[in-house]
Amino acid sequence: MSLKDNIIKDQLPRHIAIIMDGNGRWAKKQGLLRMFGHKKGVETVHEITETCAELGIEYLTLYAFSTENWNRPKEEVDALMSLLVDTIEKETPTLMKNNVRLTTIGDTSRLPEKAQTKFINCINQTACNTGLVLVLALSYSSRWEIVNAVKQIIDKGIKQIDESTFATFLTTSHIPDPDLLIRTSGEYRISNFLLWQLAYTELYFTDTLWPDFNKEELYKALINYQNRERRFGKTSEQISNNTH
Ligand code: FPP
Q1: pLDDT digits (tens, 9 = 90+) for 175-185
Q2: Is the residue at 200 inside a domain?
Q3: Residues of the chain above pLDDT 90, percent
Q4: Which of 41, 110, 148, 170 is buried most deeply by CB count within 10 Å?
Q5: What's the 39 CA to ligand 1 centre distance in angstroms?
């Protein structure tokens, strides 16, 4: 029996978010430049996106470039931007084949113009796809997103606010909160990612570096998730008796 056979098909997370970490360390371990790790990381992005589409996951959010990543050495930032542009161009036919719709969250106005155009083209081209929604977090940070939401609320002169109206001002307003967050590379941090949206998300950490992560590793994370009890602040008894 393979790992995949242990996954309960009707108890899959609707939304998986991933902090793809460890590309640099993977490259260093092989005596290669950091960019080789990012390039290998793209292959993992391809495999995990296809696997999620195949399994029927509704949303996959990938932390591809954080606000803080702008502070990396210029050569790495430039190389990452080129990699993103090349990848999106090269992968659009695969997204079409797998019925995947692309969308982005984050301050994409900070991306180089060429990258913005490529992303807009891909978003438009995949707009009618009805399968997995692939959300790329680009120039994204949660504190930026929350402050940005507050600014819009002030600008609109809104005086009454509750959780659900606040959420409509976040860049994720049309996306359900993640059910499962995966972080690779043995780091136990959230790193300014979806701080509001992760309130009740199940967290899964693995030592595997992102370039080594693969579908079997994803199956392990899903099996682990399916063995948890999500209580949302209730008691275990309430959950098993389905009472309020
Ligand atoms: C973290 O590894 C990874 C990134 C900052 C970039 C992630 C980008 C990709 C996987 C490539 C492009 C992705 C898409 C969606 C096309 P790190 O550099 O922080 O690794 P380290 O902690 O080992 O140094």
Answers
A1: 999 999 999 99
A2: yes
A3: 92
A4: 41
A5: 9
Residue 99 lies in a domain: yes
Residue 217 covered by a domain: yes
**Which residue pairs from 227-234 have beta carbons closer than 8 angstroms and sit at least 24 positions apart in sequence?**
228/202, 230/179, 230/200, 230/202, 232/200
For the segment 41-50, what is each residue's pLDDT rounded down to a tens digit? 999 999 999 9
Res 243 pLDDT > 70: no
Query: Which H or E element spans position 25?
Result: helix 23-29
Query: How far does residue 12's CA lie from ligand 1's centre (Å)?
Result: 26
Q: How many domains does the chain have?
A: 1
**Structural domain of residue 50, as residue ranges?**
11-141+178-228
CA distance 85 to 231: 41
Residue in 5, 6, 10, 21 annotated catalytic: 21
12-27: per-residue pLDDT in tens? 999 999 999 999 999 9
In sign, the C-alpha dihedral spanning 193, 171, 52, 33 is negative
Query: Which pLDDT band, with edges at 50, 70 and 90, does 244 fall under?
Result: low
Which ligand 1 atom is at minimum distance from the Cα of 88? 16
Q: Which of 28, 33, 36, 38 to mutate to test the pocket of ligand 1 (most atoms within 8 A of CB)?
A: 38
d(CA 12, CA 135): 18
- pLDDT-derived band at 35 (thresholds 50, 70, 90) equals very high
